[in-house]
Amino acid sequence: MSTTTEDALTKNDFVTPNDVRWCPGCGDYAILNSLQRTFPELGVARENFVVVSGIGCSSRFPYYMNTYGFHTIHGRGPAVATGVKVANPDLSVWLITGDGDGLSIGGNHLLHILRRNVNVNILLFNNRIYGLTKGQYSPTSPVGTRTKSTPMGSVDNPINPLLFALGAEATFIARTYDTNVKHMTATFKAAHEHQGVSFVEILQNCVIFNDKTWDPVYGRQTRDDQLLFLEPGQPLLFGKDKDQGIRLNGLSPEKAHVGAGGADMSQILVHDPDTPSPLYTQMLAQMTYPEFPTPVGIFRRLERPSYESEVSHQIEEARSRLGSGTVESLLYTDDCWTVEEGEFDD
Amino acid sequence: MLTRNLSRVDFQRELKQISGKIPSLKDFEMTKVTPGFEERQSVVVRFAGDSGDGMQTVGERFTDSSVMVPNAIATFPDFPAEIRAPAGTIPGVSAFQVHFGSREILTPGDEPDALIAMNPAALKVHLDDLTQGGLLVVNTGAFTPENLKMAGYESNPLEDPDLSQRYEVVPINITELTKEALKDSPLKTRDKLRCKNFFALGFTYWVYGRPLEATVKFVNNKWGKKLPDVAAANVQVLKSGYFFGETSEIHRNRYSVTKAAVKPGTYRKISGNEALVLGLVAAARQTDKELVYSGYPITPASSILEMVSTYKHFGIKSVQAEDEIAAIGVAVGASFAGSIGITGTSGPGMCLKSEFMGLATSAELPLVVINVQRGGPSTGLPTKTEQSDLLQAMFGRHGESPLPIVAAMSPCDCFPVAYEALRIAVTYNTPVIVLSDLYVANGAEPWRLPDLEEFEKFPVPQPPAGEPYQPFARDPDTLARALAVPGTPGMEHRLGGLEKNTQGDVSYDPGNHEKMTEERAEKIARIANSYAPLIINGDDEGDVLVLGWGGTFGAITSATKTLRAEGYKVSSVHLRHLNPLPNDLEATLKRFKKVLIPELNSGQLAMLVRSKYLVDATSLTKMMGRPFRVADIREAILNLISA
Predict the structure, then answer these.
(1) pTM: predicted TM-score of the whole model, two decimal places
(2) Which of B278, B335, B497 shows the shortest C-beta gap to A71?
(3) Which site among A306, A339, A340, A341 would you substitute to test the B interface, given the most B Cβ atoms closer than 10 Å to its Cβ?
(4) Are both B371 and B300 inside the same structural domain?
(5) CATH of the domain at B444
(6) Digit-coded pLDDT (tens) for B433-465
(7) For helices B196-208 and B55-67, angle between their N-to-C axes, nearest 10 degrees
(8) Containing H/E element for A191?
């Protein structure tokens, strides 16, 4: 995959003339901007990008990316993305989904694209609400969420997208958020570089139906204390002065003040996304507001052969063993018999 | 006592004498009547037993031996939905019917001339079908009080004198003789008894003078290396069954069916699903598309997924998806990316796939969706045949979403139907529905390998070079759009389920939606311009035209041919294309005084034909999970003539 044009691609090469039709102030604008900034930096020719989506506000995304794109049906984007990647493994495939599309109606397909390790980059926009249908609670809405369909508050326990991905043993799991273009861009690049399925949860604000849903986590006033930036090889520290850390107490994480009168740095966990054990990833994924700071960054990154490369590999292997099939060899097999001309009368 | 005529000692002595000798094709003079044989033009044999008795295996072996003769042949496997229903019970009965002859054979036969019943339940289920005076071979060893009770017999039917008056009864203690034949085998008794189907097969080979060599070869290929004792035991039991016929004097009548007069060529035995797979693989070679098949296991379509997966060296990619929806989704994604996506299922799976068919209709992507129909609604009769999904194929999607439909009429016909489906899908950039059915899919017949030059290459429509790409610009003749495939520089565009205009932009313009709806419909309608003329079996005018589609071909054609030979002015037409219907159909219908439409449903094609052509067609329906008998059609035609 190399660029076909002499000139390097820029963000503008990925902007379509279509009017973007999200609500003013929607978090999706920043995500779009970040992806349009990311693509020129990946060394992939524009014609080799494919953006696939399901249905929902986030799933309008392909219409705004000047690449090949396919806006499919509700929840089924993973199946289409799998088909694209199986048919042509050279394409860089990006799947845009949301908390309803990916975790409710499309939960089954998301599960299977993750476990198969199809080399697709999945961006799940999590705004904890159904926006396009005007404000019903979603599978990531906290218990007690009051919406038009849950006037007395939702009663069902929400799903944690990262735990879902971990349960499917996804090989790349990350989280970013819609108010930090730099962090999003870095995360998208890392997702692209990972050979295998990449699952990225994006905390996203719905300005109309669930405004400020993530403000307790990433709002201007709270983010220093509530966001924990994961950096490989770096200790799990947070707070404005990086004087809070995460250490283990038995098998459970706990917050600890670091420095004079507090914990020693040697007690603070050091981030390692390449650790094969899911226990550490699970611990990070379960750290949620308000008990813990919310981790963002790359949670897990493991090497495993991708589905489409194994499919292609089997074809090569079959060909090396049996030769490339010809139509004659397809039809004329050992159990054929021949009736000679003139052997019988009609 | 083993049987009335043969003592244990005699049997052992006979076995010693015959060891090592295997009758081969050369031992039978198949072109003329063999001494000791009564000649028959065709014979229908039905093997019936418990679903663990290996009846499908012996049926297939009998078929293999008969196609080698060669005889004309048609088969009908009939098995329960349960893998192993409780042994000895009525629901556990599995059967395989073979119709072989020296003349054209179009159906597996109405009534068996011979029934091999391995236990009381099999006798109970199948005896009524056996023709009067037919050969009835029963395994007396299985007629225990317990088995009789399970089959619902209050007394042993073999002791009923009426039985031997109505049929040519051959009671053999197959259970005991099998044990006896394997006296020296190291196998455990239970495993020895699993060979008893081969005893029945061997005896049947003797009755009909069939060669054993193909079966011996099959056994050795299957078990020779890994389980040599099992292979040896099965061969021994097969031969024992054969020579039991020769030596026991229990039964003297033998029947020969001479070689069929068949067209010169190379032949192989083929089932419908096999032919479908070969057709898909071959057709993909006739166009510049890679084939991606994506399916989810469902009876009776699973074998398509399994067989396609063995053609990886043809570059065919196969995916077993997580469900029916994902299976078509993967195929749609593959088609979008430039391959030809194919998915296969049965009725319930079609319901799940319908939203994706709508997307592929709107996005105008090539796609083949195969429905191997079975009895419905819901889980219905998963292992029985029906043709009740025609109206679903026509209308089972929301919105205005017409799709082309092609149907296979016989196992061999699945090959050209697969080619035709791919041709239409690629040429017109549309999903195509292939209707097969369980009867066609599982049935087998000899297939004369086609001349591949009959199957022309079909080009992939290409967008004009050097112009801005317009996703929905159309060919003036076919109205097909041309795909620009991801990876093509300068033609980046977005597809999706939202209505688009010619330029490919999302459009809510009322006029545009009507225009696009009409263009999509007109594109499908114009597919009929590419059909070959209708084939009329018989004169092209007359008293009655029998119009059919799908697996009823054999029964309709046989009935029509026979009646015509008797002087009736009856013809038949079997439709390959159900949507759009052929342009020459209306005129053809109107050249006959009456039209009969037999279908294994409540009259679905009849409804379409009546509404489209205002023809007062008579519907003949059957919804019993079984194919039409030739006699059913014959009777309906005669009734219509005399009405």
Answers:
(1) 0.92
(2) B497
(3) A339
(4) yes
(5) 3.40.50.970
(6) 999 999 999 999 999 999 888 899 999 999 998
(7) 30
(8) helix A181-193
